[in-house]
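Continuing the series of single-chain predictions for the mutant panel. This is the parent chain; the variants come on the following pages.
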Amino acid sequence: MTNDKSPLSDALQSALTALHIQDAPLLVAVSGGADSVALLLGLCDLRESLRLQLTVAHFDHALRADSAEDAQWVSQLAAGLRVPCIIGRREAGDAPHPRPLSSEYRGEGGSEMMPEESARKLRYGFLRQTAKEQGCRYLAVAHTADDQTETVLHHILRGSGLKGLGGIPPQRELDADLTLIRPLLKLRRADLLSALAAWDQTFLTDPTNVELQYTRNRIRHDLLPKLRAEFNPKVDEALERLAIQASDQQAAIEQLARQLLQKAVIDVQPDSIRFNRNEFATMPVAVIREALSLAWQQQSWPRQGLGFQHLDHLASMLVNGTPTKLSLPHGVEAACRGNLLELRKSKRN
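Parent structure:
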């Protein structure tokens, strides 16, 4: 690396300035791949001007025989940059998957592989704990514009709602004192590779990133190239615009939904919540569904299993009074009584 800032560092500085981040302890998640290595080097370029106190964190999922070599490589990289490095590793008692695996997660001969979501939970658990121990207020991860494109397309294929179409947010509160940031989200992977080449910096390549049994890899290596070649050469930009518009609209709907709840909620108990139906009469159904979803979350009831159809039926109960009763996931019962709608959770669930 030289003492001159790179175009990547300039883009990083703009992103951090927009997030009002300076003079702060910052944990950098580094896998050793091109994206995270570029993130680390770019942040090192800025640590003096922005007074950043950097710490590297690497989590070894221990799924490959040579995975410890990756951890050692990251540790040596951090040492060369004079950045402290914390290495975590999946313990033998940590199951690599929380539930029976589908064929998507089985390798050749039926060998089991870690599902992406399970791996993510273990990794982020380590990152949260490390950030707490190191006193870091921010956790930086290396998602790029390419990751955004792939995520939005994946959500479309899964039938996600408006919130899912918004893709990856540039920042998110993980805990009261820890914020996840994605300062590379507007940069393409090709931009990062160019910066690494200019720095003459090597990086690691995870062989599982090209294995097509993973949905994300099939989207990246098969579906997106076909869409670019046969349907729209600018499909990436189109998906980015869709994410921005969906995110903006979702934010507006959430704001209206919170205002609606303030007026409509009559009584809240740990196992029940009651609404004044009159407050919903003239509201758009999208706002009503979002208000119901927010109310459910505020009750700390499990969100899993509560789908679009449940929320749509509840919206109909609020506006039309029909159906008068509805059974919902996790033992929650909905009932209309005149101008009231009550959601009550059975104590047995």
